[in-house]
Amino acid sequence: MARQSTGSVVERHRASGTVYALRFRALGQRQYVTLGSTADGWSRRMAEAELTLTLAQVQRGTWQAPTAAPAAPIVSDPTFHEFASAWFEGIAPELASKTAERYRWQLTSHLLPYFAAHKLGAITVEDVDRYRRAKVREGALSAGSINETITRLAQILEEAVEYGHLARNPARGRRRRLKASKPPPVWLDRAEQISALLGAAGDLDAVARADRQGIGRRALLATMALGGLRVGELCALRWRHVDLAAGRLRVADSKTDAGVRLVDMLGALRDDLAAHKAASPCTRADALVFPTLAGRPRDPNNVRERVLRPALARANRDLEQAGCTPLPEGVTCHRLRHTYASVIIALGEDPRYVMAQLGHTDPAFTLRLYTHGMRRDDGERDRLRALVGGAHWAPAGTTTAAGAPSR
User: Fold this and answer.
1) Domain containing 283 — which CATH number?
2) Domain identity same for 261 and 314
3) Domain identity same for 133 and 274
4) Could you give the dihedral angle defined by the CA atoms of residues 213, 219, 222 and 224, in that order, rounded to the nearest 10 degrees?
5) Do 167 and 204 lie in a common domain?
6) Of the candidates 136, 208, 276, 311, which lies 20 to 30 Å from 168 by C-alpha distance?
C-alpha cells in the first residue's frame, strides 16, 4: 500500500498582510510552495483546500514542481528629493505661475527639508504623521497650510504608486490631516470702515519721506477695495490699462481666463487714481501703476506688509482716538476684494454683473455675498453711495436716474 502523503499550511505575517505557503514531501524531498497573501485574496481555508488538492496529486504521482516565474524587473528606489524634483519639473509648465510658486515653496521650505533623504519606497503612514506633528510643533504654519503641504505630498506619492515605487499612498486619507476650522469671513461692511482705511493710507502718503510719497498707498488700497482687483492683478496693472476718461480699468494679467476683464470704476476710485497719476514720476503707457521705487513690479507680500498692514494699524489708532469700533481682525488683500463685491451689491447690482466685475465663474460665490453683504440699515446705503461717488455712478452704457448716459 502506498504511503499517505502529509503536509501543512504555513502562515507568515508581514506588514502588508498574512502570506500563505504549503510545506510537504514530494519527489523524494521537502517542498515549500508559496501561495499568496491576504492582499491577493488568499485565506486559511483556501490554503487548506489547496493543500488537500496538492497532496492528492502527490499521491497519484501527477504533482509537478511549479516553474519559477521570471524575475520581476528591478525598479530603482529613488529618494524623495530625486522623485519630487523630477515630478515638479514635469508638472510646472502646466501650472499657472502663482500656483507653481506655491508648489515650489511647499516643496523647498517644508517637504524636502523633512523627506529629502527618505527612500521613496520606504515612506510610511507613520512618517507622514511624524511630519504633521513636527509642523505643528514648529508653529510657523496654520493647520490649513500644513494640510496643503500634505495634499502636495499625497499628489507626489500618488504618482509614485502609479510608477510602482509604492504599493499604496501613505499620505492619503483624512486622518493624515489636521482639523482646520474655517475662519469666519472678514470684510469691511460699513462706509466708515472703508473711509477709515483709505483715510489712514492717505495720511501715510502725506507723512512719508519725499522719495516714498509716490507709492500711492490710498490709490493702491482703493483699487482693491473699490475695484475688486486681486493683489497679483494690482501689481501687474499698467497705466495703459487705466482709462480715467471712460472710468474703466482693464485687467489684462489674471490667474484665470475669466479674470481678464473690464472693471467699471466707482467715482471715488477714479478720483484716487487721477490724484495718484498726477503725483507719479512716470505715467507713460507701459509704466506700472504701483511700482517699487526701482520701477519694478511690486511683490504681493510687499503690498501686504508695507502698505495694507501699516494702513490698518493707522486706521485702528485713529478710530480708537475717535472712540469708534476698530476694524475687524483678519482684513487681507483678498478681503478687500470681497469688500468691493459687497459694495456694488449694496449699490443694487445684480449677480451676473458682480460676477463679471470680479472675473468670477462661480455663481455660488456671488450668492453667498448676497447673504452677507454690506450693512443696509440706518441709512448705510446712502452713506456708502456718498463715500464711493455712487450717487451718480452706473455701469458704462447704462443711464442715470436723470436719464443721461453714465460717464
Assistant:
1) 1.10.443.10
2) yes
3) no
4) -90
5) no
6) 136
| 165, 75 Cβ separation under 8 angstroms | yes
Range of the domain at 54: 7-60
pTM equals 0.58
Residue (of 52, 44, 45, 21) closest to 34 by Cα position: 21
The cell for 62 is: 501527477
* Residues 14, 102 within the same domain: no
Residues 232 and 27: their CA atoms lie apart, in Å, by 77
Tens digit of each residue's pLDDT (9 = 90 or more) over 223-252:
999 999 999 999 999 999 999 999 999 999
Q: Are 161 and 192 in contact (CB under 8 A)?
A: no
Number of domains in the chain: 3
Using CA atoms, how far residue 295 sits from 18, 102, 217, 251, in Å, is 67, 25, 16, 20
Q: Does a structural domain hold residue 404?
A: no
Q: Pseudo-torsion of CA 275, 308, 379, 382, nearest 10°?
A: 20
CA 71 – CA 66 distance, rounded (Å): 14
Q: How far apart are CA 46 and CA 366, in angstroms?
A: 59
Shared domain check, 136 and 11: no
Q: Cell 502725506 sits at which residue?
A: 206
Q: Give me the residues paired with residue 243 across strands.
A: 248
Angle made by CA atoms 355, 357, 362, in degrees to the nearest 5: 20
92: helix, strand or coil = helix
Spatial separation of the C-alpha atoms in residues 104 and 211, rounded to whole Å = 35
In a shared domain, residues 258 and 357: yes
Please report, in angstroms and rounded to a whole number, the separation of the first and last CA atoms in the chain. 112
